[in-house]
């Protein structure tokens, strides 16, 4: 999930970048007083975009053919905003398209926000993609979760974008969100509202232009009807000079093919319901201790609400079993009373580790806050790999959740106890962390198991505190 949080941050930073450039530059064209090097200054290129070209969506050839060849040429030589690419190799784009990206989002750029919303709510893809401004609402939550009331809101939206039977009341679904976290529903929705403001202005401009056009052909009339239909949709985007909406995919119930390609290339499931379910029950691990409980509290109106609790319990029990199985490998090391490198190499080799992994493990340089050492920090198992840059070592370090690369030695005791104290303090001081069946309780249980084994084995002769 860190991958999508990082992608969302790129778009957030792009908006901040745009706002820092507007209304600060001047015309860099030579005939209007521009000096050498003026085109290199982003604020000046923003001036050209806003005040020379303007912000109407159109093809580059249109601007060239209408007296703006010099302005287009100046933008063509320089990079504009960062755009998200299907393969994850995001980069700044040159030319008018890259500079328009500071104002107008593309379809691909909603994917990280959709994934985050899927993980933060119990909503299906069709509900999220079909959100319409004015059709959803935030209101005070009528529950007490130990957090200041102005920081907790209930978010409600129609479950279905369209209801064919006029006698049937629209079904509304809800979740609870906090207001001070950028990865929670409230901040995401408010950001998307801000992100799409310029494109909404352009959409209304196109509606007005087409409405005043007396001799529209069939294609133009169809496009006008389309614009009117999507004018309130939250997730609108452009393809060339035309504007579209993810709401269209809400009605068919499946995401754009571009999302499937992106998820495949990034190594994620293309079935969003599967991705949602997986990350929903792992909410604490991916997003911190508040996520899952706050979601469940917001959707407690039906008996089916208990299913996520059951799913989460099953998942945590499975992680516990996996951890116990893998921890047996560490127990084998702790049993070694001599605790010497020669003996450890033999045991580790028998456990299937390569010579290089053993060397890394025994170097003492890959200790984590959980007390264990890692045998291969640059190659974490797939389910533990949240890295954006694969050349960097493991970032999430969720070793305690059953990573097969982790091994605990007797010298881990001090760090294990430090981590136990930290998690217990968290339960005492963070209200939601101490409630329900959170991941913290399970991590404490696993750390207590590590502590117990180390203490027991030390008493039985594994008294070395360092690898010799």
Could you list some keywords that capture this structure?
about 475 residues; mainly alpha; 3 domains; three-stranded antiparallel beta sheet; two-stranded antiparallel ribbon; 20 helices; 9 strands; disordered C terminus
Task: Characterise this structure.
The chain has 468 residues and is mainly alpha-helical. The protein folds into three domains: 2-103, no CATH class; 105-270, no CATH class; 306-459, no CATH class. The protein is 49% helix and 8% strand. The chain has a three-stranded antiparallel sheet with strand order 3-4-5. A hairpin with a 7-residue loop joins strand 1 and strand 2. Mean pLDDT is 79; it is low at 278-306, 430-437 and 462-468.
- Overall 3D form: elongated
Count of alpha/pi helices? 20
SS-based class: mainly alpha
SSE run: HHHHEEHHHEEEHHHEEHHHHHHHHEEHH
Distance between the termini: 39 Å
Low-pLDDT runs? 278-306, 430-437, 462-468
**DSSP, total strands:** 9
The major sheet is characterized as: 3 strands, antiparallel
Strand content: 5-15%
Q: Reading side by side through the largest sheet, how are the strands ordered?
A: 3-4-5
Q: What is the percent of helical residues? A: 40-55%
Mean pLDDT: 79
Report the C-alpha radius of gyration, rounded: 27 Å
Total number of domains: 3
């Amino acid at each position: 999930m860190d991958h999508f949080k990082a992608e969302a941050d790129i778009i957030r930073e792009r908006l901040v970048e745009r706002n820092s450039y507007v209304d600060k530059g001047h015309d860099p064209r030579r005939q209007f007083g521009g000096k050498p090097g003026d085109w290199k200054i982003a604020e000046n290129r923003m001036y050209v975009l806003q005040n020379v070209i303007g912000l109407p969506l159109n093809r580059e050839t249109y601007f060239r053919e209408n007296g703006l060849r010099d302005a287009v040429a100046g933008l063509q030589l320089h990079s504009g905003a960062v755009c998200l690419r299907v393969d994850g190799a995001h980069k700044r784009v040159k030319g008018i398209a890259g500079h328009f990206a500071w104002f107008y989002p593309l379809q691909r750029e909603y994917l990280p926000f959709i994934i985050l919303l899927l993980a933060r709510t119990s909503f299906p893809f069709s509900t999220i993609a079909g959100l319409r401004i004015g059709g959803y609402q935030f209101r005070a939550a009528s529950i007490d979760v130990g957090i200041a009331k102005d920081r907790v809101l209930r978010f409600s939206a129609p479950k279905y974008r369209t209801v064919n039977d006029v006698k049937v009341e629209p079904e509304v679904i809800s979740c609870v969100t906090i207001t001070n976290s950028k990865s929670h529903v409230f901040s995401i929705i408010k950001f998307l509202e801000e992100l799409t403001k310029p494109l909404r202005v352009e959409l209304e401009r196109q509606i007005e232009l087409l409405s005043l056009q007396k001799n529209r052909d069939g294609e133009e009339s169809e496009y006008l009807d389309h614009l009117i239909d999507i004018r309130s949709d939250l997730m609108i985007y452009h393809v060339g000079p035309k504007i579209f909406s993810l709401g269209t995919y809400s009605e068919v119930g499946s995401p754009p093919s571009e999302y499937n390609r992106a998820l495949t290339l990034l190594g994620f499931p293309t079935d969003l319901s599967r991705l949602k379910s997986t990350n929903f029950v792992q909410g604490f691990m991916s997003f911190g201790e508040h996520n899952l409980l706050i979601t469940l509290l917001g959707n407690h109106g039906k008996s089916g609400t208990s299913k996520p609790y059951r799913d989460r319990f099953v998942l945590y029990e499975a992680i516990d079993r996996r951890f116990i199985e893998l921890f047996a490998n560490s127990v084998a090391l702790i049993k070694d009373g001599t605790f010497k490198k020669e003996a450890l190499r033999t045991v580790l080799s028998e456990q299937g580790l390569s010579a290089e992994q053993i060397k890394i493990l025994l170097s003492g340089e890959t200790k984590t806050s959980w007390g264990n050492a890692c045998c291969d920090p640059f190659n974490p198992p797939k389910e533990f790999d949240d890295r954006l840059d694969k050349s960097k070592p493991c970032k999430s370090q969720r070793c305690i959740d059953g990573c097969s690369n982790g091994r605990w030695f007797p010298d881990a005791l001090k760090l294990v106890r430090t981590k136990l104290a930290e998690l217990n303090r968290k339960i005492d001081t963070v209200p939601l962390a101490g409630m329900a069946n959170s991941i913290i309780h399970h991590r404490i249980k696993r750390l207590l198991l590590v502590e117990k084994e180390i203490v027991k084995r030390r008493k039985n002769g594994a008294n070395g505190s360092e690898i010799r």
